[in-house]
């Protein structure tokens, strides 16, 4: 069962292929899209050990020569220093503009490899082979590529679309269950922001997804990618509507930043942020309480956190929220649900309302 989702961006359009065993056709798919004979595959030791051989055999089988560019595993290596090492390697081996960069890994590898592809020789072809659920439903799609700066995450980056996203669902079987749950946070996000029917389907099928049952998994990844593709087609460079993909990210980023990007997976922090955003919408009279409860319940059933960590004070969280890059021209922006399946981008929310909600999230541990 292979699903194909198109990202329609004119001459930069590309397919997302979703299914089992797709790694075996990587070589053929790359060959069909790029002229170069040599391929730089960016990965980390964890993923390369598991899937490097399979990827290389497929690429070699299609007559391509593989150059491995390995980066250490970890968010802290999504940096300019790592990118520089990859530029050095590419230049030393005389990789030219025809040679594609293939990202084989999760969002960290994908973001960094994409940044290198966007900037080496002013841009070389880029292929995404996402190996985490989060990367398959979110980071590999839509062209946001970046490295971190010591002062903040994803500060240095570009919009640079891949030529292909190849999402092999088999590789998810080796993921730590915590990573599966973190990916599911983004899947739930799509239901809340754009598709109430999908959200209801998730309520029905969550347990099957948690154990990676293939049929519901294909559906969940395909629907998620379709929703993201639609949003990106409408607003590729986030001048407006694309911001809805940041649902849950305002408080989520604050939690991640204040805990040093180590205590929480990105999806876990977003989960807390989604619960906060739903509560905020209730506090503003935009969303019925019962709908916010559904959002919270599903997130909790997925084994994701729904409260801010006890060590973070409301003051610290608020200070971080107001520093967040989503403060557009000095105005705080929240993406808030008005029903499950529809969100609005809301600015200028009174600070005392935000404070009340953040306080409530910290104050109701386990009880709400
Ligand atoms: P990650 O890339 O760090 O991967 C998580 C862990 O899983 C790593 O240790 C990795 O080595 C391991 N792993 C990957 N695939 C595996 C597999 N198949 N089996 C076993 N282990 C595997 O984390 P992530 O959650 O995939 O990505 C997070 C990154 O994505 C962050 O840097 C975030 O900023 C970025 N992101 C980008 C976008 C975007 O639009 N570009 C969107 C969301 C998140
Ligand atoms: N993950 C948010 C976006 O791609 O816009």
Description of the molecule:
- The chain has 368 residues and is α/β, with parallel strands linked by helices.
- The chain has two domains: 3-174, Rossmann fold, CATH 3.40.50; 177-364, Dehydroquinate synthase-like - alpha domain (Dehydroquinate synthase-like, alpha domain), CATH 1.20.1090.10.
- The protein has 13 helices and eleven strands.
- The protein has a seven-stranded mixed beta sheet. Strands 7-8 form a two-stranded antiparallel sheet. A two-stranded antiparallel ribbon has the order 10-11.
- It is globular.
- Residues 364-368 have low confidence and may be disordered.
- The chain binds nicotinamide-adenine-dinucleotide (NAD) and glycine.
- Residues 44, 46-47, 50, 73, 75, 78, 105-109, 111, 131-132, 134-135, 138-139, 142, 144, 153-154, 171, 174-175, 179, 182, 265-266 line the site of nicotinamide-adenine-dinucleotide.
């Amino acid at each position: 069962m292979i699903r194909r989702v198109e990202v329609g961006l004119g001459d930069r359009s590309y397919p997302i292929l979703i299914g089992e065993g797709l790694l075996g056709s990587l070589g053929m798919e790359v060959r069909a899209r790029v002229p170069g004979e040599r391929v730089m595959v960016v990965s980390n030791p964890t993923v390369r050990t598991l899937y490097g051989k399979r990827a290389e055999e497929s690429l070699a089988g299609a007559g391509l020569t593989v150059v491995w560019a390995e980066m250490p595993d970890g968010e802290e290596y999504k940096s300019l220093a790592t990118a520089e090492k990859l530029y050095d390697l590419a230049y030393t081996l005389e990789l030219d503009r025809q040679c594609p960069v293939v990202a084989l890994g999760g969002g960290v590898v994908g973001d960094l490899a994409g940044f290198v592809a966007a900037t080496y020789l002013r841009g070389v072809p880029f292929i995404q082979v996402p190996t985490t659920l989060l990367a398959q439903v979110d980071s590999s799609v839509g062209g946001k590529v970046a490295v971190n700066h010591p002062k903040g995450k994803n500060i240095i980056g570009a919009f640079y679309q891949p030529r292909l996203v190849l999402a092999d669902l088999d590789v998810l079987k080796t993921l730590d269950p915590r990573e599966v749950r973190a990916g599911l946070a983004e899947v739930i996000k799509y239901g809340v922001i754009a598709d109430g029917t999908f959200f209801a389907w998730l309520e029905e099928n969550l347990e099957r997804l948690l154990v990676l049952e293939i049929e519901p998994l294909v559906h969940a990844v395909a629907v998620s990618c379709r929703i993201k593709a639609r949003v990106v087609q409408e607003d590729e460079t986030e001048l407006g509507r694309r911001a809805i993909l940041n649902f849950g990210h305002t408080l989520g980023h604050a939690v991640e930043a204040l805990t040093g990007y180590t205590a929480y997976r990105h999806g876990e922090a977003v989960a807390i942020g989604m619960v906060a955003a739903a509560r905020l919408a209730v506090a503003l009279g935009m969303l019925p309480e019962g709908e916010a409860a559904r959002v919270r319940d599903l997130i909790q059933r997925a084994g994701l956190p729904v409260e801010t960590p006890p060590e973070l004070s409301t003051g610290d969280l608020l200070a971080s929220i107001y520093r967040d890059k989503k403060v557009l021209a000095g105005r705080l922006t929240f993406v808030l649900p008005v029903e499950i399946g529809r969100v609005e981008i809301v600015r200028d929310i009174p600070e005392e309302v935000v404070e009340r909600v953040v306080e409530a999230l910290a104050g109701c541990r386990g009880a709400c």
